[in-house]
Hints:
The longest helix is centred in the C-terminal third of the chain and has 19 residues, at 430-448. 31% of the residues lie in helices and 27% in strands. The chain has two domains: 3-110 and 146-227 and 401-448, 3-Layer(bba) Sandwich (FAD/NAD(P)-binding domain); 117-140 and 229-398, no CATH class. The strands form five sheets. Strands 1, 2, 7, 8, 9, 10 and 21 form a seven-stranded mixed β-sheet that branches. Strands 5-13-14-17-12-19-18 form a seven-stranded antiparallel β-sheet. Strands 3-6-4 form a three-stranded antiparallel β-sheet. With 452 residues, it is of the alpha+beta class.
Amino acid sequence: MNEKDKSRKNFFQVIIIGAGPSGLCCAYELVKNKVGPILIVEKGCNIAARDHKVSLKDYTEGVGGPGLYGDAKFCIYGRAGTKLTKFFSENFLNQLANYADGIFKRFDKNRTKKDMPSIFKIKKLRNICKKHGFKLKMAYPVRHLGFPNGKNVVENFTNFLKRNKVDIWTYTQAKKAIKIPEGYKVLLKQRGRIKIVKCKYLVNAVGRSGNEWLKQVCESLKIPFELNTPDIGIRIECPKNVLLPVYTLVKNPRIELPIGKSYVKTHCLCIGGEIIVYKFGKIFAVDGHANHREGGNAHVNLLYHSQENKKIFDLKIKRPIVQRMENFFKNRLTRKEKIIKNKLGATTLFSLLDYRKNINNIFPKKLVLAIKKFIIQFDKICPGFQDSDNLIYAPVIEWNTYQIKVNKEMETKLKNFYVVGDGSGLTQGIIAGSVSGIIAARNIISKEKGLS
């Protein structure tokens, strides 16, 4: 094979870095419109090989990203988990959210039903919230696949892409992206070896775990970015029946308690499943996902939103902290035996957690007081929420990303250099991320067809 043939073999019309929801949906839209050849590179392993109980990296890295591998909860609402409202109307984003949901539905052999909260139930929950000083900010349709159904959808999705001649390289880490006359040159590290590929269009769908790397690439290419204001807080685990008064009305509501110019909100309410420990950059944090069968405990995030949160962006915590509710309110450490013999059985590996630290001491006082106020008030809606034996895990951190400056096509100031998904700092979640990938793909399609 001569040098010219080698060059052709390593040239792709589109290279997508990252095989999470945004990358997969971008590839799907391109395939549907016969744009190619396409290469997807993924730092982690294929979906079948992922096991977060063996390796913490498998929760954040690998085909499917963390969302589709774990909870696989589709929040089908244009305003949920997105900052794209600065570009598009709610109606347009709703259309794309439903379109993205339809893509995944195609690969769901279980035909998981979409839960549509009725107007009556939304109104009832809104009135309950108002009575106790809360605001029901969002209530939207949810399609909840749960674990491991999400893995099966990803496997069907990737098989479809492969049948349509999309190359998917796993265990392949993008090291550098360089602007060249014909597009972009990407340096890859694949199983210890350096490989160079080129493309006309480069779509960065790196997810939250790749956001720091993407920031460095943007610095080298002089693409502007800024730090988002993260939401920081805790995850509470309690008996399943405690959260049912809310869950039976709206599956995944966003409930806020205003506190001055700040607020505390609920996020990612799960019935069943487990608490997840994962590493994001230098930070060890917690999250949760649910099985497709609803059983066991319930758990939910309480996140504090304040402009002051930027000051505590880099929490130096070696392991996530666990504390009993009683000890959290009394500002005391929880003894090891108290957690092990606790009447609420913890759903995560105890060896991954640190019981020798006090959550009151790792967060600013304002944050702690705001979260305690939320718990006290929410116990009036869901009796038992403040029970002494409920477990609190910290930290939970969302929107802890750099927001890359793009136009409404998800394209940066560099021609044909796109940034999509949660790694862009503009979305958070499966559907929101997928929408951004579809937007970028449609812009590429229009360029290929000479429409733009």
